[in-house]
Amino acid sequence: MNAAALEHNTAKHTGRELTARGLSQLPYQRKWDCPLGSGRLSAPGHWIKSLSAAAIALSLTLSLGCSGVPLLSKSAANATPSIHKRKEEQVRRFEEVRDRTEYQAAQTRWTQQHDAKGCREGLEKLLARNPRHRDAHLLMTEVLLEQEDSQAAYAHAKAALDIAPNDAEVQYTMGVATDALGQSADALGYFERAAKMDPRNETFAAAYQSAQEMVREQMPGDRSVTLDRGGKNRSAEPHGEVQQAGYATTAVAADSSAGNNPAGPAGDPADLLRKGQDALAADSPQVAIDCFRQAVAAKPDNPQIPLSAAAAALRANRPEMAVELLAAAAKQFPTCAAIHRMLGAAYYRAGDYPSSQLALQQALSLDKSSALSYLLMGCTLAKLGQQQAAENHFRQARTLDPRYTVTR
């Protein structure tokens, strides 16, 4: 065999051997000679070392198991509480939006549509799901008082008080609900706390001052009463102005001193007034109004009788009865400022603010020295949205009598 044939056979056998081992054909052997980092395949020795290192790392991972990758497990565990918190926050926000929407719907039914039944149904649904909804309890109290369900109204006011004992509006509402039950002394305390918690609120101040006037009228012997700083009663000199009871802008209890008045003969106006007050205390308004009408008819020339009857009606949270008695009296005694003043207070309590304004304007045209008339007119104008005019009347009330100061 010549030299050329020997060289050809050697190359042929060498190529088969390399192909059998799974390596490239000899013409690609030049690639092994490329320098490292050139972007081409590395040298055979380095490639084999890399495979060995990878195999060792894989063996260690398999032998260690889950403990070999602790960071992944910790990350997954830490993510779980965050997911739960986000879900809880989403649920809380959803419930807040739902409560607000249902409350606003109930409020619209009450204030705009005058749908007491629909309002109550909406509030009951809301409170069944969230019994600690303050505003729902307050609105329910207002609706129930309007429907003369004093016990249920008191229960909702008490629930609101348990939720927010340091809230001035809650204290005021509790005072109104307590008045409706005939607990005037307790009501005065709630009105006082409301006025002190929010001294800039003229409604709270007026309610507290009016309640004080009413308590003075309820004391035995018709003696004036003031309160010391501890809330205890202190007797003062008799004032004999029973008509002041009608100045109230909030409902108060039936006259607790009725039994202390001297009895008169049958058909006597004083006796009829007493019977009317007893009927109101017994929740018999028809009997009461009949007694009051008879008392007025017994002495039709005495303006004090309709004033006293209307005062009793206001104390029993019957402003509509007071309006009936005083509207007739205003025609009978058109120049009596006290009757027009009390009529304005009765209209205010009934929620008829335009009529209250007219009555109080008449009272002030007849008597510009009454601080309480200015105070009541200020409250009425505030309800009508006439804030500047209300401020002027509050200022005049304060000028005439510092007791009727409304801090703005």
Detailed description of the structure:
The chain is globular. Mean pLDDT is about 75; it is low at about 15-45 and about 220-265. It has a two-stranded antiparallel sheet with strand order 1-2. About 35% of the residues are buried. The longest helix is centred in the first third of the chain and has 42 residues, at about 70-110. The chain contains 17 helices and two strands. Strand 1 and strand 2 form a beta hairpin. Helix 5 runs parallel beside helix 7 and helix 12 (about 305-315) packs parallel to helix 14 (about 335-350). The chain is mainly α.
Concise synopsis of the structure shown:
With about 400 residues, the protein is an all-alpha fold. It is about 65% helix and about 5% strand.
What are the defining features of this structure?
mainly alpha; 67% helix; two-stranded antiparallel ribbon; 17 helices; 408 residues
The biggest beta sheet is recorded as: 2 strands, antiparallel
Low-confidence stretches: 17-43, 219-266
Lateral arrangement of strands in the main beta sheet: 1-2
Q: Give the number of helices.
A: 17
Shape: globular
The amount of helix comes to 55-70%
Which whole number gives the mean pLDDT?
A: 74
Strand residue content: under 5%
Q: How far apart are the first and last residues' alpha carbons, in Å?
A: 127 Å
Alpha carbon gyration radius: 44 Å
How many beta-strand runs?
Answer: 2
| Helix/strand/pairing category | mainly alpha
Succession of helices and strands? HHHHHHHHHEEHHHHHHHH
